[in-house]
Write a structure and sequence with these properties.
By secondary structure, this protein is of the alpha/beta class. It is 38% helix and 18% strand. The structure holds zinc ion (ZN).
Amino acid sequence: MNIYITLDYEIYFGENHGTVEECILYPTSELIRISEKHGAKFVFFVDCGFLLKLQQYKDQFPELKKDHQQITEQIKYLSDTGHDIQLHIHPHWEDSYYDGKKWIINVKRYKLNDFSDSEIEDIVYRYQKVLKDITGKAIFAYRAGGWCIQPFSRIKKAFKTNGVYLDSSVFRNGKFSSDAYAYDFTNAPDKDIYSFDDNVIAEQKDGYFTELPISPIRNSPLFFWKLFLLGRKDPYLHKPLGDGKAMPAPGYRKKLLTRFTNNPVSVDGYNSHLLQKALNILLKKQCKHMVIIGHPKALSRYSIQKIEEFIIKNKEQHRFTTFSKEFSK
Ligand SMILES: [Zn+2]
């Protein structure tokens, strides 16, 4: 099995966005430590809109100059040491700004599809160029901010023009919508890899794009009761390392606590408890690819331990690898 541990590398977008140190740099340094000990490699989906904003303001504000320098250095280090740096777009950065103390984040246009065709082309071009400039490598894989990749037909042209041919935003049967978010992966192909063209959840054999979906898992409400209770009982172990707050997702928490839900396999917090179980299910189905999502900001001390245990247990039989190693053209 190829196992891809993928991390969306970003600060928080809620009222309190947190610091670069706690949300990004420190948790990522823990992953680097694990990687150097066990030889596993990770995929980082970097929030490039944030990088561009830091670039825009860095000469005006010394604190942002420092953020920009440290993030750029960490990305370069990750890339040079064999981790993957790929494209993660949160286009709401286009409408957000720094007020001298904090980021004023405007999520009115949260999805790429909230922009015009020419704006989409321009965003995809600039957002991937900033990563190419840092790493000197091709950027060809994509994870949509907030999983909002539909309708793909509007984004497709910009991806082709800019050499993006692999997506990893879908998780089978995931579905959510609110003012800002919208995704619906109901009845996505029950596969670990497939080709597509206009529609990310419709397999098309000769399609230009490859989907490497995030592996899905079905959780009982009991699991999330446990997750929330552990967070209260033992915050040292279970509290996220990031010091910000997520943007609101109305009704989401209640849904998790009251019914069975379809979620992506994740290394975030207590979700990491299920890594081995998820792998065993995929092995039974004879899958070849396991994609795990996570966020440095949402890792906890517990999940960092679990990631390390998971790698130790599986590194001999399976490969903790990257998209660049497996899918570079
Ligand atoms: Zn994100």
